Amino acid sequence: MLRLFRWKKKLHRDIAVEQFIAHCEREGARLEAWLSSALGSYCDRTAKRLTLSEIQSRPLVSFQGGRLQSNPRTLFAAHCFAIVLSKGLKAMYDAVSLHGQARVIDGMVARLIAEQEVGADHVGHAPIPRPRTGGHILWRPDTLAGGVDSQQLTLVQRYRGLYGRLRSPEDPLSMLCLAFRIVPVGSGVAIRVLEEEPGSRQGDVVYFKTVGYREPEADEVDEWSNLLEILDADQVLEPLPMVVRTAMLAAMDEVDPFWPTFSKTHTLTW
Predict the structure, then answer these.
(1) 72: cis peptide before it, omega within 30°?
(2) Is 58 exposed, middle or buried (0-12, 13-18, 19+ CB in 10 A)?
(3) Which residue, among 205, 209, 225, 206, has the nearest Cα to 126 in the 3D structure?
(4) What pLDDT score was predicted for residue 129?
(5) CA distance 52 to 189
(6) Rounded Cα distance, 101 and 25, in Å
(7) What's the half-sphere exposure (Cβ side, CA atoms, 13 Å) at 93?
(8) What are phi and psi of 3, to 5 degrees?
(9) How far is CA 107 from the centre of its chain?
(10) Nearest alpha carbon to residue 189 among 200, 197, 178
(11) What whole-number distance in Å separates Cα of residue 85 and Cα of residue 28?
(12) Counting beta carbons within 10 angstroms of the beta carbon of residue 153, is it exposed (0 to 12), middle (13 to 18) or buried (19 or more)?
């Protein structure tokens, strides 16, 4: 007789989050190796382009202990980790069995990642000065860490914006290639032009809306600009040889997002 139901193993939410982050660490390391292999000699053939060793050695600079210092992850490794985390978090919201816990897990993941970078005492604090109106603001842990941005989570949010919308799968690859100048800054990208919304200002808090786009300067195109918009990934990636592009996309597609497999075999407790 066939078993119609399979018992799932119960696992506490805190442990599941720790397992998810550890899984993303491993997948991030695998993705870094795959992308490095795909880039291979391509980055070393032209003097105008960063070599692969230069790409792999660029540091991720974080604010720790009251001063700037290099993060244990390189910038390239941080990109790979952010890509994996972003894909996993999207899959978490898509998993029906986790709908009731997705937002909670999202915040837990953000806090743990920020704590890795700036320490538990510096996560989720409001900046100074506070709004003069006296209103209370609850800052997300991935937004502010003691008034200092978590660089790793800034990258995660960048890639989440690219994965979260119904857009081309080439968009995340475009961001990676632009950040490391694997492709030159050309067509397909723009800088959003903002305008303050009338009546939105309250003390030091103000809201802006996008009113148009302009062509970016070369030094404005990097992973930290929240005004950068990828309008056409095909145009961005056009200088990249198709064999390299296909291999890099395949590597990113192979990333295991964790939660679909987890949901088949586990149920959360808290």
Answers:
(1) no
(2) middle
(3) 205
(4) 46
(5) 24
(6) 22
(7) 12
(8) -85, 120
(9) 14
(10) 178
(11) 8
(12) buried
Q: What pLDDT was estimated at residue 133?
A: 52
Residue given tokens 């953000």 in the structure block: 110
Length of the chain: 270
3-52 pLDDT per residue, tens: 555 688 989 999 999 999 999 999 999 999 999 999 988 888 776 778 99
Q: Using an 8 Å Cβ cutoff, are 71 and 78 in contact?
A: yes
pLDDT in tens, 225-259: 888 899 999 999 999 999 999 999 999 999 999 99
Query: Residue for token digits 């604090």?
Result: 125
As a whole number of angstroms, the distance between CA 190 and CA 213 comes to 6
In this structure, how many other beta carbons lie within 10 angstroms of the beta carbon of residue 24?
A: 28
